[in-house]
Amino acid sequence: MDFGFTDEQLMIRDVARRIAQEKIAPSAEHFDRTGEFPLENIRLLGENGLMGIEVPEAYGGAGMDPISYVLAMIEIAAGDCAHSTIVSVNNSLFCNGILKFGTEEQKQLYVRAIAEGREIGAFALTEPQSGSDATAMRCRAVKRDDGRFVINGKKSWITSGPVAKYIVLFAMTDPDKGAKGVTAFMIDTAKPGFFRGKTEPKLGIRASATCEIEFQDYIAEAHEVLGTEGEGFKIAMGVLDAGRIGIASQAVGLARAAYEAAVAYVKERKSFGQAIGSFQMIQAKIADMKCRLDAAELLTLRAAWAKANADRNGGRYSTEASVAKLSASETAMFITHQALQIHGGMGYSKEMPLERYFRDAKITEIYEGTSEIQRLVIARNETGLR
Ligand code: CAA
């Protein structure tokens, strides 16, 4: 691993930091309170190459590497976690799979619009009765004699579902084959047979719109299959490996924002005649937060480095991605909790962002594979046992 960053990596980090601090952070409270989708900010991120960071320039992206993606995501999440959720789904869950498994036509049509920030993408795997056990999906795609597929079923917890133009959908084409009976489809939400349910009211990341979606006799053309028939589960899992690096970065950025707020506060807040940062109990919290923040950041960069190797040479980076996501999300929970505690009553107040950081952190332990699933993936890979 190289611990130095290139000029290009630093440049995209700085662009992300500037937009995050000048535009996103000042509007975060508004979007959290109203639950509005921050379309204008997302367009601005798109215009600056941040909605398709690893997408080659030929498809409208910034043509950067996974390290650049991590550095930019950390900055955006430090500005606001909800914005970084939208960025991460477009970059990781949407663009990655199409770049790896899509045809030239699919890349030009779907990736370009999303990478340029003109449209929003989504990823539909979870269903009302199946989350962690993804192969238990019931959404069915039945192949007709003319080669088209008729899709029926529901998907839930779809990030950006209320605003997405295109969705990568996973549906069962052959239920008897389990994981090998899943196929991925490119969905255009403007076509007949696609419906959206109500937007979910959520504890945190409230500006990131989430809803249930439903397919009623939706017709997918043969050229709208992503990859090959039956390859869908592997596509979903491979894409989630990349996605988990995005969520790890998000957790690091959020944790950093909470940590920096805590360090500033302990220097200025006085108690018993001195700055609270001079008390050993507070010092211990600061030291523990710092160790966990740095460890999570390094593990996330290691995962990005492993992904870059895999992108060049093939192979998987599932363990590194799961280690990063597990460590960073639990770090975000720990640090936002400690930072809120350090702020006392002010931490609990909506006048400061600490309570929002705390609410936002929780999702990082749940979506794109719960902490329990990350432990399962890591332990299976380490032991070879199932
Ligand atoms: N890359 C490529 N292939 C993979 C893979 C990976 N990372 N992981 C598994 N596979 C392959 C396996 O090799 C296997 O293929 P073979 O039979 O040819 O060997 C096949 O997929 C099935 O694998 P498993 O037997 O391990 O499958 P499983 O049913 O035991 O499930 C699991 C494994 C880890 C539990 C998986 O189901 C999982 O990750 N579940 C969590 C799902 C998840 O993260 N959901 C989040 C929803 S998306 C979201 O949150 C989006 C959002 O909007 C923000």
Describe the structure in brief.
The chain has 386 residues and is α+β, with helices and mostly antiparallel strands. It folds into three domains: 7-120, Acyl-CoA dehydrogenase/oxidase, N-terminal domain (Butyryl-Coa Dehydrogenase, subunit A, domain 1, Orthogonal Bundle); 122-229, Butyryl-CoA Dehydrogenase, subunit A, domain 2; 233-383, Butyryl-CoA Dehydrogenase, subunit A, domain 3 (Up-down Bundle), CATH 1.20.140.
Q: Would you kindly provide a written description of the structure presented here, covering whatever features stand out?
A:
It contains eleven helices and ten strands. 54% of the residues lie in helices and 15% in strands. The protein is α+β, with helices and mostly antiparallel strands and 386 residues long. Acetoacetyl-coenzyme A (CAA) is lined by residues 89, 93, 123, 125-126, 132, 134-135, 158-159, 179, 233-234, 237-238, 240-241, 316, 318, 367-369, 373, 376-377. Acetoacetyl-coenzyme A (CAA) binds next to helix 4, strand 3, helix 6 and helix 11.
